[in-house]
Design a protein that fits this description.
Distance between the termini: 22 Å
Shape: globular
Structural class: alpha/beta
Radius of gyration: 21 Å
Low-confidence stretches: none
Oligomer: single chain
Bound molecules: adenosine-5'-triphosphate
Strand order of the largest sheet: 2-1-3-12-11-4-5-10-8-9
Number of strands: 12
CATH class of the largest domain: Alpha Beta
Strand content: 15-25%
CATH topology of the largest domain: Isopropylmalate Dehydrogenase
Amino acid sequence: MAHEVVLIPGDGIGPEITSAMRRVVDATGVAIEWDVRDAGAGVMEAYGTPLPQHVLDAVGRAKVAIKGPITTPIGTGFRSVNVALRKHFDLYACVRPCLSQPGDGSRYEGVDIVIVRENTEDLYAGIEFDEGAAEVAALSELVSASGQKAFRPDSAISVKPISIEGSRRIVEYAFEYARRCGRRKVTAVHKANIMKATDGLFLRVAREVAQRYPDIAFEDKIVDATCMGLVQNPADFDVLVLPNLYGDIVSDLGAGLVGGLGMAPGSNIGADIAVFEPTHGSAPDIAGKDIANPTAEILSAAMMLDHVGEQEAAERIRRAVRAVLAEGAAVTGDVRRAQTGSARGAVGTQAYADAVIASLRAEA
Ligand code: ATP
């Protein structure tokens, strides 16, 4: 029976990279019933929202979706359509593997880390007050009454909620992932030396959870030291579990270790729904030019195939991508530039996908 998968092309480079991804997935022969649903700026006029209800209904039905990046149009009431989708389905775990591939154009070799980012809390919760709002004055009074140093009256405020439940389930997810995937260590990343209440809670919960997984090594590391350590010696790391904002930032750092944003896939996992998407955004500067690198989107599809039980096809896609990158004759401009300092000789998005498909077929 065909797997039903919702495909949200998104905008910017989304339509190009998702069409490349779809051709690669279809070339594996796995039967997928693609339910294509548009979201983002392009549907604003028709539906009055960038995230129409029928898209949410379709994802809720299929339980599996893969998307391209979506730009959030200004003045829609959404801070981010991508974040809204994660929140709507409580997709609390964002999993982003960063794996070196020969020919990926990176300065590093042998990087193999997995970033597990909490997806629903933290400064990303979207609780904010503008400078001058009545709530800011009320908060100021509360802070003064608590005996803590008052903040300047012309401040804007963002609230950083980190809960025991939210922390526990993401750290548990990281340990379960480590166990399932044969990984050796989980590092909890925080800034508990400064944010003693919020990050302190995250760290305390992480230590408690770690005790239940004696077979997996555990350490904690301050986020700034983590960034330095990742750049100096990424081999020191295995699975990293982070609150939302640090997870966002360290994800891009991780992508930089393995060839850049065009290389880094990802998934957003909830109790029974999973949405797959690359780490990068919609890159409007290169949209519509057939130059975007679809590798991150294609590798996100491999994660999606793993999720629906098609591990063999997922592996075939990963091997084909590896082979094309290693050969180096058909790579996109970002990779070629990283390797040689110039994009000369690079191929376009679709030609790269053609090379991946040819490699898939050659192996079959
Ligand atoms: P967001 O905040 O939505 O994550 P961003 O502002 O971080 O977005 P991105 O859209 O992720 O920005 O990309 C930053 C830049 O990296 C782009 O402008 C583009 O030049 C480059 N880039 C991103 N994705 C790709 C890709 N798939 N292929 C080639 N270059 C890319």
